[in-house]
Each structure stands twice: as structure tokens, then as C-alpha cells.
Amino acid sequence: MRRTAGKLAGSPISWDQVRAFRLNRHHLSQRAPKKALTSVVTDMGGAQAQLVSAAQVSLWARTENLVPADVNSALWEDRLLAKAWCMRRTVHLLPTEHLAVFVRGTARRAEKEVRYVLNRGVTAERLEELLRVVIAVLDRPVTRSQLAVLVSRELSLPLTTGQWAGWGSRREVPCVKMANFTFPADFLLHLAGARGVLCAGPDNEGESTSVRADAWLPRWHDLPGLRAEQELLRLYLRAYGPATPSDFKAWTQMRLADARTIWTRLESELEPVDIEGEAKWILRADLRELEHAELPGLSVCLLPYFDSFLLGHERRGHLLEARHHPQVYRAQGWIAPVLLVNGRVVGVWTHTRKGDLLTVRVTRFSRLPSGVDPRVRAEAQGLARFLGCSGATTLLS
To answer: Cβ of 30: how many Cβ atoms within 10 Å?
Structure first.
């Protein structure tokens, strides 16, 4: 960014304004009505859902009077939400209206898996044939085991088993072999994300399924990849702006060169800002709201594992002090549940359930203003109601 008279070019903005803007966009300064659930999922840029229960709590933190059945109904009955791999090749709950934006918009990240296979002896022609078949047979919800069998039959490939070192486990899974490469069924689904739009279907006797979006969603709307990428960046900046290309890269985990390419195509819509000496960009349409953003009197939130608010930027000094980083961003990609006060992480928490009573244990990083603790207890009671408990005990340390 250019400098003028020794200063960064762009509107001067404080970090409090930035935090107020982001809290508002994530519905963390004030919960949205339950009827706006799908809009909430859009506004927060998707709810990370390796743990579906954590994604549900993320939505509870942003939505009034929500219960888990509301999320399940939107996902499996009304099909207003879908579960799919997208940013960082992790599972998210997403609005079906924008599913193509999230999946096709992050396909460059899935291409990393394609390059990995091509560098290990599988020809481009054979790999493309494999991916066409994978996408074709997902015209109905199928399990991983069924997928491996169908692909094996269609291409006369050996059917075997192998270890899948996916997130959180190393388990034996069904696989097919092509050339000297063994494809676990889960990995086939990751690869297919570079070419098609897939999502989760309903469980089949306790086993998860996958299905093509056009075969599962009644109001499916596809988008070309370039348009999806640009719209994804707009969605990102509405939720996480002001930001930089490196932030967008961190959020998607695509290559920085790819993030910059997409960013450049949107430059005419961006406005630079100077956040206390740091250069970042915001959508021009959002600049006025950012300039007038003010923190509420006191915003207190209990955010669960992997909450999206914690995953939008490369550097996290705006969220918490560096010395507390290991307590939140843990080994093997785990993101701890956090206590968020006015957009800053000020502690971590856990909960246990015994019968219909919930115990919430909060570890504060430092002494907090007197008004925070009552709000924490109120949030814990709200969480208890969400989880179907009669009440909550809050332990603060």
C-alpha cells in the first residue's frame, strides 16, 4: 500500500472499530432471529463442522432461541443448509443458496490434492477419468464403502482397504488402486471437490454418505469457478474485513499466488484502510459501516471448538495476546472453546453434563471487569437450555 507524507494511504480506523464491525457481521454483538438462521450461516462465512455439535453451538451463539433440532431440520428436511468440504478442506455447514460459491470458490485448494496424485505416477488422463466416475456415481447418497465398490466396478480397478490419515484418526477404510496409487474413498471425495460440488447426504445405518449437490438439493444453483471465487472473496470480506490477501489465503489455505489472483480481480471494489499503522482492505460498500462501527456496551460470548470467528486471519494479535495462543490454537489443528469479550479472547472454557445439569468451567486469562461474570453465567444458562438441560453451574477461575 502506498504511503503519503509518512502515513499509510487509506482511512484511519481503530482496532475497536474493526472488532465492532466483525462482531456485528458475525451476529455476536446481538443474536439474529431464528428465522434468519441461513443468513447467519452466510454472514459468518460458514460454520466449521468437523464436530457437528460444535457447529450447532456456533449457530446458537449467533441466533435467538435456537435448538439443535432447528439446525437438523434446516440440514436434512428443508435442505436450506448443507454439509460440505470447502475452506481449508474442512467440513462446514453452509447455506445451500451459496454452496457453489463455497465449494467452487475453494476448488484451487482441492487442486493441491490433484497435484499430489499427479506427482506420484497417475497420468492426468486416468485421474480425470477417475474423477468423472466418482462424480457420476454420486447421483444418490452413497457411503464410503459403496463409493469404493461402484468406482471399482466402473473402472475395473482393484478394491482393497488401507489406512486413511484424515483429521483426527488413522482408520482402515475402503480403497481402490490405480497404477501404483491407493485411493481411500475419503480421498476420492477430496479430489472430486476440485471438479464437482458434493455434500453430505443422510446417514445410512449409522454410516455417513455423500451425494452430488445437483442430485440432492431441490433449488440447486451452480456457478462457474471464476464467478464463485470472486463471490467467495466478497463473502469473506463482509465477514472478516478489513483483511489482506494473506488473510484470505490463511482462511482458504489455497496458495498465496492464487489468493492474490482472485484478490486482483476484485481490486476495483476494495478500499484501503489504516488500522493503527497496519494496511488492510475492506469492500468499498462496507467502508461507511466500518467507520461508524462502535463496540456495544459489553459483548460476552461463549464460542465452541473451531468457531469461525477465530479462523479468518493469518495473524491473530487482534484476538488475543501471543502468550495465550497455545491455549487456544492447539496441536493437530484443535481450536479451543473461548470466552470472547468485546471481540477479544479472554479465556477458555469446557462443559460437562451430568443428568440434566450442565457444568461450565471457565479459565480466564486475566482479571475481567465486574460486569463480565454475570454475563458469562447468563450465557451458560442459555447454553444449558440449548442442550436440553434444566440449568447450569458456572465455575470461574
So the answer is: 11
Give the start-end residues of each E strand in the chain: 3-4, 7-8, 11-13, 47-48, 81-85, 91-95, 142-143, 159-164, 171-178, 181-184, 198-204, 207-212, 270-275, 278-283, 300-303, 338-341, 344-354, 357-364, 391-396
Task: Using alpha carbons, select from 16, 39, 8 the residue that is nearest to residue 26.
Answer: 39
The pLDDT tens digits for 178-195 are 998 999 999 999 999 999
Query: What would you measure as the largest C-alpha separation in the chain, in angstroms?
Result: 69
**For residue 113, what is the enclosing H or E element?**
helix 107-118
3-state secondary structure of 109: helix
3-state class (DSSP) for residue 275: strand
- According to DSSP, the residues that pair with 200 across neighbouring strands are 210
Only one residue has cell 482511512, namely 11
- Nearest by Cα to 327 from 345, 309, 341, 302: 345
Q: What pLDDT score was predicted for residue 96?
A: 98
C-alpha distances (whole Å) from 140 to each of 3, 104, 143, 215, 221 are 56, 20, 10, 6, 18
What percent of the chain stands above pLDDT 70? 96
Report strand pairing: 357-364 vs 344-354.
Answer: antiparallel
CB 285: neighbour CB atoms within 10 A?
Answer: 12
In angstroms, the CA 318 to CA 333 distance is: 20
| pTM score | 0.94
Q: Is the pLDDT of residue 295 over 50?
A: yes
Identify whether 202 is preceded by a cis peptide bond (ω within 30 of 0): no
Q: 167 falls in which pLDDT band (50, 70, 90)?
A: low
**Closest to 295 (Cα-Cα) out of 106, 1, 94, 14:** 14
Distance CA 377, CA 394 (A): 6
Rounding to the nearest 10 degrees, give the CA dihedral for residues 223, 224, 226, 232: 20
Mean pLDDT of the chain: 94
Q: What is the pLDDT of residues 333-369, one digit of tens each?
A: 899 999 999 999 999 999 999 999 999 999 999 999 9
Strands (E), 40-189: 47-48, 81-85, 91-95, 142-143, 159-164, 171-178, 181-184
DSSP assigned state of 226: H
Please give the radius of gyration of the chain, using alpha carbons only, rounded to the nearest integer.
22
